[in-house]
Amino acid sequence: AILRGLKKKGIQQPTPIQIQGIPTILSGRDMIGIAFTGSGKTLVFTLPVIMFCLEQEKRLPFSKREGPYGLIICPSRELARQTHGILEYYCRLLQEDGLPPLRCALCIGGMSVKEQMETIKHGVHMMVATPGRLMDLLQKKMVSLDICRYLALDEADRMIDMGFEGDIRTIFSYFKGQRQTLLFSATMPKKIQNFAKSALVKPITINVGRAGAASLDVVQEVEYVKEEAKMVYLLECLQKTPPPVLIFAEKKADVDAIHEYLLLKGVEAVAIHGGKDQEERTKAIEAFRDGKKDVLVATDVASKGLDFPAIQHVINYDMPEEIENY
């Protein structure tokens, strides 16, 4: 069923991180995966957790309020939603093949707790969560990690940059048994290394490509433009390139200004940044993904971990503060 699902998504061959990571995880070892967005890392930790949960469910079906057995923590709601979608997709295919149904909860801010509790009440095998909301649910005893044995931290570097390290350490304290921990990160700065030392047990490190490198097949051009001429120049660039186009700016105010300017000029544009609420962000991303909108203007908050394979052109309105974000 899984192979069929991969074929449907046009995945024929495993990527380097999948070749090395999946067997490592299936063997039960802790692992650090250094890989960038687009390397196929999501399947590395989603496919094994599905396998582990199937095995558990076959031995003894999950009862009410039980679970999760597998927990995946993501820095942003968008990334959590994307990961949850992937889990649901493969679980559905397995169910179509007559295997026991697996339940997967999504616990993120901006969604009603009631909605999330509905799923959890029936017992869940897997949970995808953002640190803030998960902490909240654990403290209120709405979620229990008593039987959780599998933990994946996606984009750990970003979670720590966002100040979630304390939360994640607290989440660790809710685990009762021994757990397998996987940490995925695009980069390996000192603070992540220290964090990994305390969180993982004798991990295997798999490094695919330079830590922090972007996808290789990118042609880069730099243009010097006076501040006041930037907007007009941006529009000229857009008129020369077929959509979809992604535009990044550092500041929320710039994103809004660019978005308004483009709309005035008749460009089909949407914008996302940290100041917009969850629903707006999701709507904008979906409209852009489905080709209903031609241009997405975003701050780097929105960019991390989201993968738009169809994009041919990215414009950075200014230079990002962090070279790795670039």
From TrEMBL:
All residue ranges annotated as the Helicase ATP-binding domain in the record: 22-206
The keyword Phosphoprotein is assigned to this record: no
CDD domains tied to this protein: DEADc_DDX41, SF2_C_DEAD
Keywords linked to the UniProt accession: ATP-binding, Helicase, Hydrolase, Metal-binding, Nucleotide-binding, RNA-binding, Zinc, Zinc-finger
Domain of life of the native organism: Eukaryota
Biological processes annotated in GO: mRNA splicing, via spliceosome
Gene Ontology molecular function terms on file: ATP binding; hydrolase activity; RNA binding; RNA helicase activity; zinc ion binding
Protein name: RNA helicase
Originating organism: Buphagus erythrorhynchus (red-billed oxpecker)
Gene of this entry: Ddx41
